[in-house]
């Protein structure tokens, strides 16, 4: 029976994870802490999750033999990134419980479907996506409303950390940028006057019970998440309630099982716009490992195993700082150095997480630090000190 719980520390305690990145690694840690075992399907050798997993199947995400081996060894399956082929998840669903489902993941794989979903639910949520146009062919460009400039051209699929995005001020710039993408389907979004950005992390169990975490406030640099602060210093009680309720409505609408993170923009006039969603734990939810009763990864484990979700209560104010590969390099040089972790770890509120990636590269997520302190001010202050140490 697909709805009966999968028990840890039993013969059937193997969980299947598609993807081997840091999200998979943190999932493995939480799964093992709960007494589960994990098999990771990941083509790369020595990936962050494969290092931690009980079993690593080294195969591509659509490899029939690899998927069969995964299917044979696990009773439930999840993924750590949205670009897993939907057909792979559908295959795993033939023999086991897949959370989130292929149908839910496929919405989040495509900005066009995602925006259509948000728009369809807007009568219930009261929140719309940014004004946008869908660009499939060069002729579509000529029909773009002048009101969408200045705008951001985004590839409909496979974008992350600001990749696949070009800012365009005019139709001319749009033509050039679109041509450079060589026929990839895109979305042109109006550039909005953001006051700040927030995300809402929700989880929903197989029994339909859902939980919502506090609002996380996110600062991005060069399109990549830089810090997450919880509680959000800026969000009003109204906007918090509105976005949390919207997240709960969205997750229920598609009968989603698992962890989902929804990004929102709060504009300078106070209005709220929904940006995108991730069908998995999210970088802005890493703080839950150190600052909440139940982390987003533990919820992912519980949801796929059809166990009750845990308490989302936050017990300490916190700031999460992402560690990019840049801190391994001095200023603009290519000379690699060791970041001064001993100084970071001397900060009393710093919880350091490194993902075990063999090679540091600029703009590559290598780890994060969560600062959890008695007051948000102290956490923020120590985050600033860590930034100064890491240079
Ligand atoms: P990704 O998939 O790379 O996270 P996003 O759509 O979330 O792509 O965009 C990355 C960042 O770019 C956002 O967090 C925000 O800071 C900025 N951004 C994206 N779209 C807009 C927009 N329409 N107006 C203003 N800023 C935007
Ligand atoms: Mg984003």
Automatic annotation (TrEMBL):
Residues 119-305 form the ATP-grasp domain. It catalyses: 5-amino-1-(5-phospho-beta-D-ribosyl)imidazole + hydrogencarbonate + ATP = 5-carboxyamino-1-(5-phospho-D-ribosyl)imidazole + ADP + phosphate + 2 H(+). InterPro entries: ATP-grasp (IPR011761), ATP-grasp_carboxylate-amine (IPR003135), ATP_grasp_subdomain_1 (IPR013815), PreATP-grasp_dom_sf (IPR016185), PurK (IPR005875), PurK_C (IPR040686), PurT/PurK_preATP-grasp (IPR054350), Rudment_hybrid_motif (IPR011054). Pathway: Purine metabolism; IMP biosynthesis via de novo pathway; 5-amino-1-(5-phospho-D-ribosyl)imidazole-4-carboxylate from 5-amino-1-(5-phospho-D-ribosyl)imidazole (N5-CAIR route): step 1/2. One of its GO terms (biological process) is 'de novo' IMP biosynthetic process. Pfam families: ATP-grasp, PurK_C, RS_preATP-grasp-like. PROSITE patterns: ATP_GRASP. Its EC number is 6.3.4.18. Gene3D superfamilies: 3.40.50.20, ATP-grasp fold, A domain (3.30.1490.20), ATP-grasp fold, B domain (3.30.470.20). One of its GO terms (cellular component) is cytosol. Keywords: ATP-binding, Ligase, Nucleotide-binding, Purine biosynthesis. GO terms for molecular function: 5-(carboxyamino)imidazole ribonucleotide synthase activity; ATP binding; metal ion binding; phosphoribosylaminoimidazole carboxylase activity. It comes from the Bacteria. ATP binds at residues 111, 154, 159-165, 189-192, 197, 220, 275-276. Homodimer. Belongs to the PurK/PurT family. Catalyzes the ATP-dependent conversion of 5-aminoimidazole ribonucleotide (AIR) and HCO(3)(-) to N5-carboxyaminoimidazole ribonucleotide (N5-CAIR). This is N5-carboxyaminoimidazole ribonucleotide synthase.
